[in-house]
């Protein structure tokens, strides 16, 4: 495998790397939280090759596979006597740092941080081993100020973080409209205001932004405050599918504990199956998990529309990850990366075959 070229991250990405907890990719708040080891391990349960597996994810609906899988004990069932230690994050850079430091072994994360982490380590530190979710991203605007897509020009639109998945998507969409925006400053035909998702609804209420290109449930929180969905990002993609959440693993952990990785993937596949077969129960389970993590459940007028806009699936939608990387190159946020080797779908293929499901494609970006 040839080495990936490092990201051209602009000055601000260096700031993010140094202060990863100041910004959030698509969550609430700005710090990692170590949760208690999960209970439910039978006394006579057989351990796998590791005593425990440390997993990380966001307290966010687009990470509901992890939320529900932990909440319902579906991961623990597959792991037997190997216990789970879970940590929650609200920023992609901090989760990548945790993976690199060995604080977590496996994580649920968005495509941009995965690309960032892979290229900055020259392809040495992580692999994407599965998909998890698609969709759940919308452009929500103040209907009094913006009545059409053309009206977005000249307005103030929030994205979660410079260079994050939604920021790249908005910059690409704006460029397709023929508008010019300086990616680093956010200034141009549209003012891009990088705003923590936790405070975006307050910024909207205060009138400091006119809209936002954001993931769920932030988008539905804005709608609950009177905003209008002007564009669902899924409509811009073939088959209305694009990766919003991947599962990544430390290459070291994958090499040393393939049985544990396979068990977590079995849990993920079975959790996605349960979510899709029991959407209302799964929605309630995800909300219960969010309440445990944040102290507050999402109200029905937020979680109901948010949940409907997210698709939970095992396919990593690899071709869309490659397209998202191309969008970041087009925006001037990174040099053209070499993503060959970013995927290792061998363990997932084994799990899917055992479950009687079709294998998924790595779009030619698999490890050799």
Summary, kept brief:
With 368 residues, the chain is an alpha/beta fold. The chain has 14 helices and twelve strands.
Description of the molecule:
This protein is an alpha/beta fold. The strands form two sheets. Strands 1-3-2-4-11-5-12 form a seven-stranded mixed sheet, with helices on both faces. A five-stranded mixed sheet has the order 8-7-9-6-10. Helix 10 (258-277) packs across helix 11 (279-294). The chain has 14 helices and twelve strands. Helix 6 (165-176) links the parallel strand 7 and strand 8. It is 39% helix and 18% strand. The model is unreliable at 1-31 (pLDDT under 50). It has helices spanning 10-18, 64-71, 74-79, 92-101, 111-120, 165-176, 200-206, 218-224, 251-256, 258-277, 279-294, 300-308, 318-330, 346-354; strands spanning 33-37, 52-57, 83-88, 106-109, 126-135, 137-141, 156-159, 191-194, 211-215, 228-232, 243-250, 310-312. It is globular and about 60 Å long.
How is the largest sheet built, in terms of strand order?
A: 1-3-2-4-11-5-12
Class from secondary-structure proportions: alpha/beta
Q: State the end-to-end CA separation.
A: 7 Å
**Uncertain spans:** 1-31
- Give helix % range: 25-40%
- Biggest sheet architecture: 7 strands, mixed
Radius of gyration equals 19 Å
- Number of DSSP-assigned strands: 12
What is the arithmetic mean of pLDDT?
89
Helix segment tally: 14
State the shape.
Answer: globular
Key traits:
single chain; 368 residues; alpha/beta; seven-stranded mixed beta sheet; 14 helices; 12 strands; globular
